[in-house]
Amino acid sequence: MNCLNCTNANCLVKRSCFPLIQKDYPLNINTINCKKGQTFILEGSPVYGLFFIRKGIVKVSATGYQGKEQILRFAGAGEILGHRGYGTEEVYRISATTMGESVICHISNQDLQQLFRDYPNFTYNMMRFYAEELNRSDTKVRKLAQMTVREKVIDTILYINRKFGQVNQLLSLTLSRKEIADFAGTTDEQVIRTISSLKKEKLLISKGRKIGIPDIDRLKKEIAEHNFFLDA
DNA sequence: GCATTAATTGGTC
DNA sequence: GACCAATTAATGC
């Protein structure tokens, strides 16, 4: 597989290096076709390059004490994975699992170094990406520490909406209650209770296991005191 | 349809 | 607000 016929305009490699990359440029992209629920980066395994999502949605998580899962973020097409391990770390500190059918691109450490040398624009864009990531993880810490459970659940739902949107008034990415809890840093029972009271307040609707937001601005108001880092 | 998994509810600490 | 247990709903095969 190579990047020439890739249609993913969001990809950082494509954006930064094309149309410069020619047919004979020695770049080896491994593409991995994944079904739902496949873990293609495993916490603790040696770092062997960077991953880019070509298609699909991936959850990034780390395992804590007694196997407790903390979901750190969800990533969509064009986003970068495994970057924190690159350079300094010898093993990945996160796992990455597909939420649905996905296509993942992988670039080896060697090819990556070559790209960094050949395409300063790519290097610069990567640096900007790292800076943004640092900001996001910073705000994530503050949210976990300062928000109430109710606020964290609302924030999680708004985050999913912001990132992946709604279809027919329902969030297009369906998370289990436990996944919401693992992202928000609470338990699935708390999530269930919060969601059901939000439904009573008409701030949320649901069909089966899917959740919808009837009025996004009204829901945003619920966490307005934390507006400071709403967009993270 | 049945078996498995997820959601919900109630109770205890 | 977490953890546990019991019940009920949803989903996969």
UniProtKB/TrEMBL annotation:
Keyword Transcription in record: yes
Keywords: DNA-binding, Transcription, Transcription regulation
Pfam families per UniProt: cNMP_binding, HTH_Crp_2
Species of the source: Algivirga pacifica
SUPFAM superfamilies: cAMP-binding domain-like, Winged helix' DNA-binding domain
Name of the protein this chain belongs to: Transcriptional regulator
The HTH crp-type domain, residue ranges: 147-217
Domain Cyclic nucleotide-binding intervals: 37-133
